[in-house]
Amino acid sequence: MRTPVFALLVLGGCVTQVIATDGHDTLPATAANVRYGPHQRNVLDFWKAPGNGPHPLVVHIHGGGWTSGSKKRTAADVKPFLDQGISYAAIQYRFSTQAPLPAPVHDAARAIQFIRSKAKDWSVNTSRIGLTGGSAGACTSMWILLHDDLADPESGDPVLRESTRVAAAAVRAGQTSIDPKVIERWLGPNVLQHRMIALGVGEKTITDALKNYAQHRVTYVEFSPYNHLDGQDPPLFMSYGNNMTLPSENPGHGIHHPVFGIRLKEKADQAGHECHLLIPGISQPEEYATPMDFLIAKLLAP
After folding, report:
1. What is the C-alpha to C-alpha distance for residues 232 and 117, in angstroms, rounded to an integer?
2. CA 282 to chain centre
3. Closest Cα partner for 197 from 254, 146, 238?
4. Residues in a beta bridge with 43
5. Half-sphere exposure (CA, 13 Å, Cβ side) for 147?
6. In what order do the strands lie in the sheet with 87-91?
7. Residue 178 pLDDT > 80, yes or no?
8. Tell me: the pLDDT tens digits for 81-121?
9. Distance between CA 14 and CA 172 in Å, rounded?
10. Helices (DSSP H) in the chain: which residue ranges?
11. What's phi and psi for 197, nearest 5 deg?
12. Which pLDDT does position 155 carry in this prediction?
């Protein structure tokens, strides 16, 4: 039997009621299905932290290989941040089956820009925005964290004039490279069979993707977070499972393999970038026990 957790229902910055949840219930959003772009899946949910703002913000980007998933979150996902005075948002984006890269990642970046454009209305501290997500959501989060700012001051779209830079990211089982020529070398051939690698560039199979690799190479290189890391980037916390078997055992194991984190951590250490890597029994950050601890500390830092 689960012990109920009591969650605050926050609407418009005011606590209107207290509800009991077993951790799997949803917590009604302050603003739900807010459209941040022109496409059907360009929607987000926003939960405003109680009390006077502006508040730091965590943005969750869902996983699913860029081919599935949704913004749905439970009270257990959202409430720990609200309790710390940190607002929360969860976004959806186009799948690569609808529109291949750059669409899924650029949609997420636009969501950050849209949230910035709503900073006054939603009482968001734009210097304290953090990202989180798993798998493809982790890959996207790391790309936004490590990439140069996408703001276009000359754009006729006021949203695109906003910054994409964030303060930190804490991610789970993320791909630090999607380049098949790189990750096969890191992990062996099984990882290439995961749908994310071929569908991300609009190919149906990895055979087709490799056959047309010259055509897709620029995209693979661009959307591999590893290629954008330098010593000036905001801090990052990565966590992975601890199955270190190489070559990877199957596509699912390969696409979430801890070696992704190890490779990025090696580069980060050489560049002087703050990067923490949690692999149970293998790598434990000294300062932060969990990704949530890291995000809260970074977003509430003086």
Report:
1. 25
2. 24
3. 254
4. 35
5. 21
6. 31-35, 43-47, 87-91, 55-61, 124-134, 168-172, 236-239, 275-278
7. yes
8. 999 999 999 999 999 999 999 999 999 999 999 999 999 99
9. 32
10. 75-82, 103-117, 119-122, 136-146, 180-187, 195-199, 206-211, 213-222, 251-255, 258-271, 291-299
11. -75, -45
12. 97
Give the position of tokens 């949230």: 115
Which domains, and CATH codes, for the chain?
A: 29-299 (3.40.50.1820)
Where is 164: in which H helix or E strand?
A: none
For residue 220, report the phi and psi dihedrals to the nearest 5 degrees.
Answer: -60, -40
Long-range Cβ pairs for the range 278-285 (8 Å, 24+): 278/237, 278/238, 278/239, 278/240, 279/239, 279/240, 279/241, 279/242, 279/244, 280/241, 280/242, 281/242, 282/242, 282/244, 282/258, 285/237
Question: Cβ atoms within 10 A of the Cβ of 241, count?
Answer: 13
Angle at 263 between CA 260 and CA 268, to 5 degrees: 120
The pLDDT of residue 25 is: 87
| CA 136 to chain CA centroid, nearest Å | 8
